[in-house]
């Protein structure tokens, strides 16, 4: 597990993490607890949440487990109410709950897969931010969305995912401007592929079912989970508006403006090893 950014950097603070049962969210919950925060953990799988909570409690911090679904506004309201009841404040909300896609657009029979991605990756974040905002405003805290470089560039085989992350970027950028002067910061984390999470295995295939297993292929440029976690904690401490991980990825949207054909070829080349089958029929 991740070494704390700085012991005590978040002491006295309360951090709410969605998607905390797995991958990025689980590692973030542990890292924030290790840095002194009390943490509220949210996702659908209660048994997995409890396992993550046990590792967080080993840091000596208080941990709240709230099972629920980000696509259900009532679950998100309950998460915030229970967090306030237990801890009395919310300083940072990290929206890490998310869903992937692994299908070409022309393999889809209908738009149900895209709809589900938008529900989880966009409305799910909006539901949590909306419920928590009054309390984050009171603490002059941070709203953080774990996004992707696919929030600023398109990627073949991931059309619905890239669409959802683009929409998430628009949501967060608009919210940041609305909140100017309120003391609330809004941060988006534009991550590359991350090793060691379940996103690929759970990504929806053309029929809307999870693909089930990740291919052995993984881009050599995928990043370590620990590096992403350190970047997120630093972004919250530094109240950064947008952070690319790794940093060189910030050049990709610039390249897409200056030399769009070249940018498309680079993305297509990176995806060449990904097993997205040819269209049916
Ligand atoms: N892994 C990567 O390569 C990568 C790269 C860039 C960005 N990201 C982003 O990082 C975030 C976390 O992904 P990950 O890689 O950690 O994947 P992961 O291991 O599959 O974790 C996804 C988390 O989201 C939760 N979740 C999914 N649907 C939910 C729902 N409807 N309600 C509540 N929780 C839900 C899952 O918990 P339950 O199933 O228990 O609900 C799980 O805790 C995502 O937003 C993803 O887009 C990942």
Provide a concise account of the structure shown:
Helices cover about 45% and strands about 15% of the residues.
The total domain count is 1
Instruction: Give me the CATH superfamily.
Output: NAD(P)-binding Rossmann-like Domain
Number of helices: 9
N- to C-terminal separation?
46 Å
Task: Name a few traits of the molecule.
Rossmann fold, 44% helix, binds NADP nicotinamide-adenine-dinucleotide phosphate, 9 helices, alpha/beta, 281 residues
Tell me what the structure shows.
It is a single chain. The model has no long low-confidence stretch (mean pLDDT 93). 44% of the residues lie in helices and 14% in strands. Helix 1 runs parallel beside helix 2 (46-57), helix 3 (73-87) packs parallel to helix 4 and helix 4 (112-139) runs parallel beside helix 5. Helix 2 (46-57) links the parallel strand 2 (38-43) and strand 3 (63-67). The protein is α/β, with parallel strands linked by helices and 281 residues long. It has a 7-stranded parallel β-sheet with strand order 3-2-1-4-5-6-7, sandwiched between helices. The termini are far apart. The protein is globular. The protein is built from 9 helices and 7 strands. The chain has a single domain (14-271), classed as Rossmann fold. NADP nicotinamide-adenine-dinucleotide phosphate binds next to helix 1, helix 4, strand 5 and helix 6.
């Amino acid at each position: 597990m991740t070494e704390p950014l700085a012991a005590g950097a978040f002491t006295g603070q309360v951090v709410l993490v969605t998607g905390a049962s797995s991958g990025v969210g689980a590692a973030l919950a542990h890292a924030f607890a290790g840095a002194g925060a009390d943490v509220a953990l949210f996702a659908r799988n209660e048994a997995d949440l409890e396992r993550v909570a046990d590792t967080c409690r080993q840091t000596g911090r208080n941990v709240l487990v709230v099972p629920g679904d980000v696509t259900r506004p009532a679950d998100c309201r309950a998460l915030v109410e229970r967090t306030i009841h237990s801890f009395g404040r919310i300083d940072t909300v990290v929206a890490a709950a998310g869903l992937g896609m692994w299908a070409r657009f022309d393999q889809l029979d209908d738009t149900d897969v895209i709809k589900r991605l938008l529900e989880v990756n966009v409305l799910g974040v909006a539901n949590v931010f909306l419920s928590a905002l009054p309390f984050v405003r009171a603490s002059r805290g941070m709203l953080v969305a774990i996004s992707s470089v696919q929030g600023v560039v398109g990627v073949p085989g991931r059309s619905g995912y890239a669409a959802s992350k683009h929409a998430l970027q628009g949501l967060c950028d608009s919210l940041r401007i609305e909140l100017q002067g309120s003391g609330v910061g809004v941060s988006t984390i534009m991550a590359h592929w991350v090793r060691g999470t379940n996103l690929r295995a759970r990504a929806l295939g053309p029929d809307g079912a999870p693909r089930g297993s990740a291919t052995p292929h993984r881009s050599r440029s995928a990043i370590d989970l620990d590096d992403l976690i350190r970047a997120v904690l630093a972004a919250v401490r530094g109240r950064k508006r947008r952070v690319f991980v790794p940093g060189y990825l910030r050049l990709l949207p610039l390249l897409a403006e200056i030399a769009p054909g070249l940018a498309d070829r680079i993305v297509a080349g990176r995806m060449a090893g990904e097993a997205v089958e040819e269209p049916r029929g």
